[in-house]
Design brief:
340 residues, binds zinc ion, Rossmann fold, 11 strands, binds nicotinamide-adenine-dinucleotide, two-stranded antiparallel ribbon, 7-stranded mixed sheet, 13 helices, Dehydroquinate synthase-like, alpha domain, 2 domains, alpha/beta
């Protein structure tokens, strides 16, 4: 078992990573929740695989559940309204506990319901996809997509606790697993060179690796809970990744893999980092069958300017200073246009 605590100004919470924790939920949940009612939100795929097990391990609570269709298409305002309606029909009360059982979609959606219904309900995350376990389940960003814009409506809402069972990764299909690896490689690249090196050997993704990956995220979230500074380093590979994700039909972690390569090329042109970084990251990306299609970063700078320019007219790029360490590099519109 590995344990990690996220310490924020007015709220701290623990993350427990343990194989088969799904069979032992009551023990942990009782540490933070003393009432009876629990409402689980999950998707169709995860419900088939794990809902029964979870219900069995919560037998001393009064537990109900809401199941939504799987996938990103569910992260919208209609599904949000349906969930709230179903919860109210099931007589949810102020102070009752929500549980997010599923991947990042369920985590973002449940967190947003928890942030808004009754102006706030406590919730616990039980992430089941690799991406959710090593990334999206911590940090407190919740939300839904709206009018073709990802995560455009949302709130910061921290969970009461996060419970991770690495064994659930085994039922992910290969593409979903590799998609999560895209973000895991990113965590190694920006914050832990030892972790990055391990990935060359295709290790089993176990309690330790998830712990190390979450630790990279935890450290920046603690310093910058509301994403105004250091937390931006988590966006390594995302500046171009988002542009690629919008234009082509890649999954998020796949687009991030391509975006990391583009960011390294751009940094090299600005004399930041070393040329070898490209080959090192490329090697790992290929091990996990992530796309390594070469896109010229210059072809995407206009999209990035349109998407990311802030009020002062600058764009923050995240570059690798070393393998295992990232920097924020601000550029003005004129400097960017000179590169194009
Ligand atoms: N809040 C954040 O900080 C943050 C960070 C990164 C990504 N995200 C969000 O996360 C979402 C992507 O997360 P995701 O990749 O987990 O997507 P997802 O929730 O759609 O899960 C991917 C697929 O895997 C299935 N699945 C989940 N667990 C499974 C298991 N154990 N076995 C078999 N199938 C399983 C799901 O049903 C789904 O079909 C995006 O909406 C993204 O915006 C949020
Ligand atoms: Zn991401």
């Amino acid at each position: 078992m590995r344990e990690l605590s996220v310490n924020l100004k007015d709220h701290s919470y623990n993350i427990y990573i343990e194989n088969e924790i799904l069979s032992n939920l009551e023990f942990y949940i009782k540490k933070v929740y003393t009432k009876k009612n629990i409402f689980i939100i999950t998707d169709e795929n995860v419900a088939l695989l794990y809902l029964e097990k979870v219900l069995n391990s919560l037998s001393s609570f009064n537990t109900q559940f809401v199941v939504i269709p799987a996938g990103e298409d569910s992260k919208n305002i209609n599904v949000y309204a349906n969930i709230c309606e179903e919860l109210l029909n099931k007589d949810i009360r102020r102070g009752d506990l929500l549980i997010a059982l599923g991947g990042g979609v369920i985590g973002d959606m449940t967190g947003f319901v928890a942030a808004t219904l009754y102006r706030g309900l406590p919730y616990i995350g039980i992430p089941t996809s690799l991406l959710a376990q090593m990334d999206s389940s911590i940090g407190g960003k919740t939300g839904i997509d709206f009018h073709d814009r990802k995560n455009i409506i949302g709130a910061f809402k921290q969970p009461l606790m996060v419970l991770i069972d690495p064994n659930t990764i085994e039922t992910l299909n290969e593409r979903e697993f590799n998609n999560g690896m895209g973000e895991l490689i990113k965590h190694g690249a920006i914050g832990n060179y030892e972790l990055l090196k391990k990935l060359y050997d295709k290790p089993k993704i176990d309690e330790d690796i998830i712990y190390e990956s979450l630790t990279v995220k935890k450290k920046v979230v603690e310093v910058d809970e509301f994403d105004t500074g250091l937390r931006m380093t988590l966006n390594f590979g995302h500046t171009f990744g988002h542009a690629i994700e919008l234009k082509y039909h890649y999954k998020h972690g796949e687009a991030v893999a391509i975006g990391m390569l583009m960011a390294i090329k751009m940094a090299n042109d600005l004399n930041i980092g070393k040329k070898e970084f490209y080959d090192e990251i490329l090697k790992i990306i290929k091990i996990y069958n992530l796309p390594s299609t070469e896109f010229n970063y210059k072809d995407f700078l206009n999209d990035v300017l349109y998407d990311k320019k802030n009020i002062s007219g600058t764009v923050s790029f995240i570059f690798l200073e070393e393998l295992g360490s990232a920097i924020i590099y601000k550029m003005t519109e004129e400097e960017i246009k000179r590169l194009i």
